[in-house]
Write a structure and sequence with these properties.
Order of helices and strands: EHEHHHEHEHHEH
Helix content: 55-70%
Structural class: alpha/beta
Largest sheet: 5 strands, parallel
Distance between the termini: 18 Å
Bound molecules: BIS(adenosine)-5'-tetraphosphate
Low-confidence stretches: none
Shape: globular
Amino acid sequence: MFNLILFGPPGSGKGTQSTNIVRNYKLNHISTGDLLRDEVTQQTPLGVEAKKYMDQGLLVPDEVVIGMISSKIDENPHARGFIFDGFPRTRAQAEALDKLLEFKNTQIHLMLSLEVPPEELVKRLLGRGITSGRSDDNEEIIAKRIQEYHNKTAPVAEYYNSFSKLERVKGDNTIEDTFRLLTREIDKYLLPVE
Ligand code: B4P
């Protein structure tokens, strides 16, 4: 099993690149953003609670997100591996993920961090907001999300760096060029599936 974290600030292209990586390597995709938005759409109790945080650009509480991840891993016992997109976003989430994987006799093998300048992030997210209908893709909430990222999420990269699992990848090229840089790192661990 090969387990990858795709990391980076809001709008860095985690969701975009995950789609390409899943196609190439046949990993199971776990996006906490997508899972939470599904819960919101279905108006489940978890979704109603999560929406309060998401609409303000704040992180959803750790225990909510960790519970969701745990059941997704359990649903796919024969996966070739997982790509975690937008998770972990706090040190507590990272430690919980490590414990969950250890329990299954596996681990995180690699964290790829997409590096994109702040002005490009804002431009992309405002662009997406025009068509996505996402209530968090507006100027005020984008600023809040980037601030949350710097306060709570950026330290997670240092956590994995301390285990020599972090690789930083330039994320402000075209989607195709960024994908090539990512595959160069993944290919060191896993062959693409034809
Ligand atoms: P997410 O759904 O994870 O979304 P994101 O960080 O905003 O975007 P991403 O980096 O995936 O960017 P994308 O590829 O779409 O989080 C949303 C919210 O959910 C959070 O704010 C939080 O409230 C909550 N949440 C999620 N996970 C959580 C967790 N673990 N703990 C607590 N709360 C959690 O790209 C953005 C745009 O850029 C797109 O329009 C795309 O087309 C464009 N783009 C991408 N790459 C490009 C490139 N190379 N060039 C030009 N444009 C590009």
